[in-house]
Amino acid sequence: MTKPAEYYQRDREWHPPALARDYKTSVARSPSYALISLEQSASEITGPVFGHNDIDPGDNDLLTNYAQAGESPIGERIIVHGRVLDENARPVPNTLVEIWQANAGGRYRHKKDMYLAPIDPNFGGCGRTLSDENGYYFFRTVKPGAYPWRNWVNNWRPAHIHISVFGSSFSQRLITQMYFEGDPLIAKCPIVQTIPDPAAIDQLIAPLDLNATIPLDTIAYKFDIVLRGRRSTLFENRLEGN
Amino acid sequence: MPQKLDYLKETASQTAGPYVHIGLAPGAAGFDIYERELGWDIAGPNAGGERIRVEGVVIDGTGSPVKDVLLEAWQANAEGVYAHPEHPGEVEEGFRGWGRVITDFDTGEWGFDTVKPGPVMGRIGKMMAPHINLWIVARGVNVGLNTRVYFSDEAEANAADPVMGLIEWEVRRQTLVAQRAERDGKVVYRFDIRLQGEGETVFFDI
Prior knowledge:
The complex is a heterodimer.
Chain A (H helix, E strand, L loop, with lengths): L35 E2 L4 H4 L31 E10 L9 E6 L24 E5 L5 E7 L4 E3 L5 E3 L2 E6 L8 E7 L17 H5 L2 E2 L12 E4 L2 E3 L15
Parallel strand pairs in A: 2-11, 2-12, 9-10
Antiparallel strand pairs in A: 2-5, 3-4, 3-8, 6-7, 8-9
Chain B lengths: L19 H5 L1 H4 L21 E9 L9 E7 L22 E5 L6 E7 L4 E2 L5 E2 L3 E7 L6 E7 L3 H5 L10 H4 L3 E7 L2 E5 L2 E2 L9 E2 L1
Parallel strand pairs in B: 1-10, 1-11, 8-9
Antiparallel strand pairs in B: 1-4, 2-3, 2-7, 5-6, 7-8, 9-10
């Protein structure tokens, strides 16, 4: 059993602030008071554990997980793959990664999405997988389309995939979005631009990974996900004892 | 130039957006895809302790209910043990201690059934009052919000709780206390979450 130890504090200047005026929905949904900083206890350094019984092997293949037999969704066939790491650059194994996205036309399979682009009968738009013992994960899907949204009158989301990751503790829980290299909408998106540091935005942009493509079949993008790192226990810490 | 530290930076958070249900609760988005959705059963059938329901609404700065929230709960069992390999002790077969719920699209109401957790040993040997950890994401929430649900029938333990004690303004501590009531013979705790404005819920940087 590993000796319990805290995770490094979250760099709140790297993450977007709660209130980002150009992303209008954040204005009434952002707390005004400062967060109360909490030294971690058992409640924060533990978190849910998932296993292969929780998911099915085909859940990471969005080309087939909703398609009718013998059919395929419309769109560019892509592989999204990478590693889940922590800030110490160590792999995070066996962690649940869940994704969701619009179809190639920019339409979500969601009862609240009224965009005029059509639903694709062969595309659900969600997938999930567990990272392997080296932190590696992969999905197969179609490249999502850009779509308009109400913020200013004329806002378009860059193509993106939503990603949810658990890590090993509740304090590592993270939801983010992955963007695609070369998309001119990234620089114009008020949601992307909630992030103050351009280097943090770059870290959300997946490069084309030609080496990982399947020739004549599927193109690939690489996306590493970094979760909070953990203190070493070389020296005394006061978390569990006196 | 000093040596360079070789830490990586944490991936920056982005909002879960309005369609979070597709990924994390596809049934609610309006379609069936997975054999098993995750997080609908926090305690399982074998967990000891008092069966309770926790429910509420999430309210924005205008006083309106927020109807596209996803909440995740993380809690210990009635003995104060988390279902995690690093936490000493055993939990009942089927007790996961984790769940996820969404708010109703029309009313904004959310709720989950579980068992009341026991007190959990905190830092430096200080016992924490029974609590459920919550993580809240939604459109317009740029980084998931962490808070804790404490219980109104644990006034003495709450008063001694080291995390409650960190909240300098005593009036704000009450925002973390769920109010106990009975309904149709069931124990229901009410826990409304105010994102902003009067009675703003305490959120933690954990």
